[in-house]
TrEMBL record:
Classification via InterPro entries: DIOX_N, IPNS-like_FE2OG_OXY, IPNS-like_sf, Oxoglu/Fe-dep_dioxygenase_dom, Plant_2OG-oxidoreductases
Any Pfam family matching the protein: 2OG-FeII_Oxy
Family in the record: Belongs to the iron/ascorbate-dependent oxidoreductase family.
Gene3D superfamilies xrefs: B-lactam Antibiotic, Isopenicillin N Synthase, Chain
The UniProt record lists the keyword Ribonucleoprotein: no
A GO MF label: oxidoreductase activity, acting on paired donors, with incorporation or reduction of molecular oxygen
Ranges for domain Fe2OG dioxygenase: 193-293
Protein name stated in the entry: Fe2OG dioxygenase domain-containing protein
Keyword rRNA processing in annotation: no
Record keywords, A-Z: Iron, Metal-binding, Oxidoreductase
Length: 345
């Protein structure tokens, strides 16, 4: 795509709600005044004693599929540098970001826009721009990343290391919560996990009631660690059938379970629908670090969590490549991917 088209496609140069089409049909609009924000998801202090920590994490995974963590061990200073590096990337001129713009999902490093397309409806572009690229725990991946902003490669490498350690700790706690050995989930997700960074930029929007920043979705991976801008609300999560807003807590990460943990836990832990909304005054950034299986991994309910009488398997086992293929097939719709792998009882 050439940069002139990109300027329009990324939607914020110039800021206009009319071209391309950012305006959602009425039934898909956010109805922001109906969304409460107080105490929406649990906040868990990772410094607590292990027993109560496992209990709290387990309860949050069962009831919410989402929680925030504080005292997580990643330094505030590094988080600030990571946020600034991403912010500097989105501040690059459109021509420069535009060289990475593509609709091709197989490209590991790419800038793109999300969209929604209902049956027989016009395509609606989301009021955001997304920059996705791999991260790794051991391999050097930084040569894949842009050389501009100049600090980007170094900061992401440092951040990835810290997030890798936190991911591992969270997976242990979640395994323990399910009554499994601490390394069970990490082992089942596999040795060579699929690790993707997704940085989302939401520019201020002239009318946040008409559009969304990201469509309603569940994360397709296993676990997500999300850092969000301070002082700007944007993330909404479904709780008991209603939307609630996640208030950004200083120095906290938002943790959410992806579809693969819902399947591995045989439905005990939830991968919950969420969306991002826009706001009028301030730009907002969120940085999601995804951890999931690679394409060759078999995923299905963990044997120890299944029995014939009370806990029959809710999903069939599948190759993660097949899950991904189904995910891409449902592009633009309110995806029902894991439902395709559900067993009827
Ligand atoms: O911006 C947010 O808070 C949500 C991001 C998100 O859900 C995602 O990247 O999958
Ligand atoms: Fe998400």
């Amino acid at each position: 795509m050439d940069t002139a088209t990109f300027k329009l496609a990324n939607g914020y140069t110039p800021l206009s709600l009319s071209s391309p089409n950012f305006i959602l049909p009425e039934d898909k609009r956010p109805f922001l005044s109906q969304v409460p924000s107080l105490d929406s998801i649990p906040i868990i202090n990772l410094n607590e004693d292990p027993e109560s920590l496992i209990k709290k994490v387990s309860q949050a995974c069962e009831e919410y599929g989402f929680f925030q963590v504080i005292n997580h061990g990643v330094s505030e200073e590094l988080c600030t540098r990571m946020m600034n590096a991403v912010s500097d990337f989105f501040d690059l001129p459109p021509q420069e970001r535009g060289t990475l713009f593509t609709d091709d999902k197989t490209k590991p490093v790419r800038v793109s826009n999300y969209h929604i397309k209902g049956k027989g409806e016009e395509k609606v572009t989301m009021w955001s721009e997304t920059f996705a690229h791999p991260w790794h725990l051991v391999d050097d991946f930084t040569h894949l990343l842009p050389q501009n902003p100049p600090q980007y490669r170094g900061v992401v490498a440092e951040y990835a290391k810290e997030i890798g350690a936190l991911m591992s700790r969270l997976l242990s706690l979640i395994s323990n919560g399910l009554g499994l050995d601490k390394d069970c989930l990490e082992t089942r997700i596999g040795e060579n996990p699929r690790l993707v960074t997704q940085a989302n930029y939401y520019p201020p929007c002239p009318d946040p009631e008409l559009t969304l920043g990201l469509p309603v979705h569940t994360d397709l991976n296993a676990l997500t660690i999300l850092m969000q801008s301070q002082g700007v609300i944007g993330l909404h999560v479904i709780k008991d059938g209603k939307w609630v807003a996640v208030d950004p807590v200083p120095n906290a990460f938002v943790i959410n379970l992806g579809d693969q943990i819902q399947v591995l836990s045989n439905g005990r832990y939830k991968s919950v629908h969420h969306r991002a909304v826009t706001n009028k005054e301030l730009p907002r950034i969120s940085i999601a670090m995804f951890y999931g299986p690679n394409k060759d991994t078999m995923i299905g309910p963990i044997d120890d969590l299944v029995d014939e009488k009370e806990h029959p398997p809710l999903y069939r086992s599948y190759l993660f490549a097949d899950f991904l293929a189904e995910f891409y097939k449902q592009e633009g719709t309110r995806r029902m991917v894991k439902e395709v792998f559900q067993l009827q009882h």
